[in-house]
Amino acid sequence: MAAIAIVLAGGRGTRSADPSQAKLAQVIGGKTLMHRHLDLLAGTQITEVLVVAGHLGDQVQELCDTFDHGGVSVRVIQEDEQRGTVAALLLAADDTEADEFLVILGDILMSFPVDTFISDWRASGKEVACIVHPSTHPEDSDAAFPSYDGRVIVVAKSEARDGIPNMSSTGLFAITREGLARYATCRDVGSDVLPAAAVANDLFAYVSSHYFKDTGTQQRLAAAASDVASGAFARRGRLTPRLALFLDRDGVLNAVQPEVYASRDYRLLPGVAAAISRANSAGLPVIVVTNQPGIAKGLMTYQGHEEIRAELDRQLGAAGAFVDDYFYCPHHPDAGFEGEVPDLKIPCDCRKPAPGMVLAAARKHHLDLAASVMVGDTWRDQELAASTGMAFVHAAGAPEIESDAAIVRGIETITC
Ligand SMILES: [Mg+2]
Ligand SMILES: [Zn+2]
């Protein structure tokens, strides 16, 4: 099978910094967006790129003629009339023999492991895929969250997203030729195909801590340029193993007591959101790893636990902060108690201090554990850090003591 990339050059850009300039021609850190897309694709399995351009198409053609493509063939297709992203994809699909399409919205600045995404998508067997990440503006984003039961929850921003953790589409999609035929009557990939594919259980959501930022408004373009200038883009978007900040949940993000089994009882400790926001600004992936034996003990359901995570995300989001991913162990080894879930009362390789969650996170997010740090409040976290080669920062564990300072110390440990 051969996958190609289709770059959608996008609409009129009435909200963009300079509406007379094609979005792909916008310069960020000395390079146009088009140049950056092709740099990302060079060296991957993608050797063919089709650019669908309508508005300012001549500029896009000229742009693609101006630099070396590193062995990637690039063709620009002119679209006479804009009828939505699905119509643009159908037009491109008519122009190639390929049967898998990596869909790039032209105005997203991005850097992520392209080949890993494509192989994970193939392994999922789904016709449609999207890359998702936490949004910096969750209330103004369509939610797309891979839920505990294997379904992907997709909710438009116009609808209530209560109880859904902070994950949204990045604007990077993939679809097979068959999938494109199935959803040919949809108008837009993000707004129409994703919800339809989710309902049909035909959608793969790939959680990424790599770099994706929409540059469609003057403000967002400036934010992307500032990430390139500050090094946050390079740190988050790095394609070789990256360093990360691992956080335990209970005793670090929230108090240990009382134990939380309902989202209405969840409270972040003071200063924690601000500390995490520093890691976010630095482009440092933030990964939560938490033992939640309350699920095995029957004290909460998977669904209830997901709602608690959503509340954690909501409180972080209100302070402009987010965690990139969240791993939990639902198991507990000692069986024989009333109300427990027998299937989860097992020894496992994910309950800390076992390294299962950290190793899974390292694989999924391309992390260099020897350069990473774990912040936790118990011996389990400390032992986990030691066995996986991470530095360890001890959070005091008592309510309202030093959690934020411990997180900041963790950030300084790996960035200095
Ligand atoms: Mg703890
Ligand atoms: Zn486990």
Task: Give a quick precis of the structure.
This protein is an alpha/beta fold and 416 residues long. It has helices spanning 33-41, 57-64, 85-93, 114-124, 177-182, 189-199, 218-230, 232-237, 272-281, 302-318, 356-365, 379-388, 403-415, and strands at residues 3-8, 27-28, 31-32, 48-53, 73-78, 100-105, 108-111, 128-133, 143-146, 152-155, 168-176, 203-207, 211-214, 245-247, 286-291, 325-329, 373-376, 391-394. The longest helix is centred in the C-terminal third of the chain and has 17 residues, at 302-318.
Write the layout of secondary structure elements.
Layout: E1 3-8, E2 27-28, E3 31-32, H1 33-41, E4 48-53, H2 57-64, E5 73-78, H3 85-93, E6 100-105, E7 108-111, H4 114-124, E8 128-133, E9 143-146, E10 152-155, E11 168-176, H5 177-182, H6 189-199, E12 203-207, E13 211-214, H7 218-230, H8 232-237, E14 245-247, H9 272-281, E15 286-291, H10 302-318, E16 325-329, H11 356-365, E17 373-376, H12 379-388, E18 391-394, H13 403-415
Parallel strand pairs: 1-4, 1-6, 4-5, 8-12, 14-15, 14-17, 15-16, 17-18
Antiparallel strand pairs: 2-3, 6-11, 7-13, 8-11, 9-10
Helix pairs in contact: 9-13
The structure holds magnesium ion and zinc ion.
